Amino acid sequence: MSKFAPTPNDKFAFGIWGIQNRGRDPFGDATRPAVSAIDAIRGLAERGCYGFEFHDNDLWPIDATPAARDAVLRDVRKVMADTGIKATMATTNCFYHPVFKDGAFTSTDPAVRLYATQKVMRCLDVAAELGAGVYVFWGGREGVEVDVAKDPITTAGWFRDALNFLCEYVLTQGYDIKFSLEPKPNEPRGDLYLPTVGSMLAFIGTLDNPEMVGVNPETAHIKMAGLNPYHEFAQALDAGKLLDVHLNGQKPLRYDQDLSFGSDDLREAFLTIKLLKDHDYSGTIGFDAHPYRTESDPWDFVERNLRTAKILMDKVRQFNENRQIQDLLAELHGAHPELADMTKKYSSATATKLKNLELDPDHLAARRLPLERLDQLFTELLLGVL
Ligand code: GCO
Ligand code: MN
Fold first, then answer.
1. Which of 207, 290, 218, 289 is closest to 23 using CA atoms?
2. From ligand 1's centre to the CA of 21, what distance in Å?
3. CA quadruple 109, 111, 114, 115: dihedral positive or negative?
4. Burial 363-372 (b: 16+ CB within 10 A, else e)
5. What are residue 178's DSSP bridge partners?
6. 8-state DSSP, 238
7. What pTM did the predictor assign?
8. CA distance 315 to 340
9. CA torsion sign, 78 to 79 to 85 to 91?
């Protein structure tokens, strides 16, 4: 096997819905046969994945009887025991059924909001049983086309109430589960509430149990808003809230493409992996992408996502060890070391000292910054010629 073959130590996890995706889009029907959840999970295990991620209805249909659901779960437990793969993330499908057409937790109908809450509680029981430690909320229908219909502060209150209730449920059941909120700016709704990492972080601060709620950013969702994935992932990490990641690819400002990781922008993909490695991110590295509609089965697609991430991990190591790059970075960060910590701690003596410090902006502005050279070294490293 090549040195880029993934192993469970890489902590890769894959959303099985991407593997089950049959290539339907708003303009055309399925282009490939169905893959069962069990085959999807087994295929991931065979390819060195540490874990799999699932929605309730990826495993059992929404109208399954308890007995039918338990039969599926027996098969899931069996494939987990046979292969060692773990269920790392669970979530609820609160977007597909027409009942959610105007929102789940932000529906104007309290009965719909309760139905969504009940659906989460039932899947939380399964998540706990399968050992999934992260439970994601992606509000696919939590949004609006007609803004005069709903006040966004009221809808935020409904979502807050539901999350507070569900946090209490997890705590009183003694489940070892944290919630992770996944922002997206739009699609399938015209506008989705809480569109960015920053919005989610601010919202989490308003919850009763903020310590058990984090964020689950996705590359594509960030780029749909024209934002920088490296910065968005970093903000969640800096806040101690990066519980899970959804890596994929996306051209900026377009419909949700869910492309393979690194297929659109290798620099960004590199920076995302570098961030996770440099800051000892300890969660799983999750992928939420779809094969091209032209594929006949999902496996080349799965393998390329894992392989690209693995190769980029090696590129990060090369970057961090490369003398030329590191010398340039040291030069960039080496200005005025004697001043670096001056404002770390406030004192009135330091304030006086700073007020009187001689700082000549013209002199400071004259400093040469070798960023073209650095960026070219980075380019050559990625191109494999450095
Ligand atoms: C999307 C979402 C979905 C998932 C979500 C839940 O397509 O916008 O990412 O693929 O349901 O990530 O985990
Ligand atoms: Mn996602």
1. 290
2. 12
3. negative
4. eeeeeeeeee
5. 134
6. H
7. 0.97
8. 30
9. negative
Q: Is the CB of 142 under 6 A from ligand 1?
A: no
Please tell me what DSSP assigns to residue 211.
Answer: G
Task: Please name which of 286, 272, 210 lies closest in space to residue 244, comparing C-alpha atoms.
Answer: 286
Catalytic residue positions, numbered: 55, 58
**Domains (ranges, CATH) in the chain?**
8-321 (3.20.20.150), 323-383 (no CATH)
Crossing angle, helix 371-383 and helix 299-321, to 10 degrees?
Answer: 140
Report the pLDDT value the prediction gives residue 1, as an integer from 0 to 100: 58
User: Contact at 8 Å (CB) between 193 and 142?
Assistant: yes
As a whole number of angstroms, the distance between CA 115 and CA 109 comes to 10
CA distance 242 to 6: 22
User: Which one-letter amino acid corresponds to residue 193?
Assistant: Y
Euclidean distance between CA atoms 328 and 376, whole angstroms:
12
Sign of CA dihedral 208, 210, 285, 378: positive
List, for residues 182-196, the tens digit of each pLDDT value.
999 999 999 999 999
In angstroms, rounded to a whole number, what is the distance separating the alpha carbons of residues 332 and 328?
6
**Does residue 141 have its Cβ closer than 6 Å to ligand 1?**
no
250 Cα–ligand 1 center, Å: 14
User: What's the burial of 258, exposed, middle or buried (CB within 10 Å: 0-12/13-18/19+)?
Assistant: buried
User: Tell me, what amino acid is at 154?
Assistant: T
Type of residue numbered 120: V
Residue 53: closest CA among 167, 142, 182: 182
Distance (Å, whole) CA 217 – CA 243 = 9
Q: What is the DSSP secondary-structure string of 369-386?
A: --HHHHHHHHHHHHHT--
The residue whose CA has the least distance to atom 11 of ligand 1 is 138
Low-confidence residues of the chain, pLDDT below 70?
A: 1
Dist. CA 122–CA 265, nearest whole Å? 39
Q: What is the pLDDT of residue 2?
A: 84
End-to-end CA distance of the chain: 25
